[in-house]
Design brief:
Layout lengths: L7 H13 L3 H8 L3 H11 L8 H13 L8 H12 L4 H11 L5 H10 L40 H5 L9
Helix pairs in contact: 1-4, 2-3, 3-4, 6-7
Length: 170
């Protein structure tokens, strides 16, 4: 099972299973989720009376997502990133210099921002040095073929006996 955020329908299913008296492990098996995910969801979003309401849980989750740190960058930091991208700086360089300049941006955030802005007219990923192409080591090297090569299936029978010096393969 890989990490996935809960959707609203799963929250309603959790609430229904809790009312029926199932354990967190049993709910996790039925929803194909880890029991720790169910436990964390219930404890994080229950009300004071220890009731779990899925509509309240969904509202709280959306609120947490909206106020996440990665979405709270100031306009100066975004302008700084866009400016140095136009100077052909790499996202790793931008993150390092931005940290010393007081802008808390990571190279992952820069790549993610470029991915989100991919369909804009400006196309910020065009400013990257490699134009977002993946580096493949040795992709340009061509294989060298020996001219007039004789295949191993056509070697003489004498070599199969391996009695002469040089017939043994290392």
């Amino acid at each position: 099972m890989s990490y996935k955020q809960l959707i609203e329908g799963q929250r309603y299913q959790i609430e229904a299973h809790l009312r029926e008296g199932f354990s967190y492990r049993e709910i996790g098996k039925r929803l194909n989720l880890r029991h720790s995910t169910i436990s964390r969801e219930v404890h994080r979003n229950r009300l004071r009376e220890s009731h779990y309401l899925p509509e309240v849980a969904q509202a709280r989750a959306l609120n947490r997502r909206h106020h996440a740190f990665k979405y709270r960058l100031c306009e100066m930091a975004i302008a700084f990133v866009e400016f140095v991208l136009s100077l052909k700086w790499s996202p790793e360089q931008i993150a390092c210099v931005g940290k010393s300049a007081g802008y808390a941006v990571s190279h992952e955030w820069i790549y993610g921002r470029m991915q989100r802005d991919k369909f804009k007219e400006d196309k910020p990923f065009k400013h990257l040095r490699h134009n977002r192409r993946k580096y493949c080591k040795g992709s340009r090297a061509k294989r060298v073929f020996t001219p007039n090569r004789v295949g191993i299936e056509h070697r003489p029978v004498v070599i199969e006996k391996k009695r002469r010096f040089g017939d043994w393969e290392a």
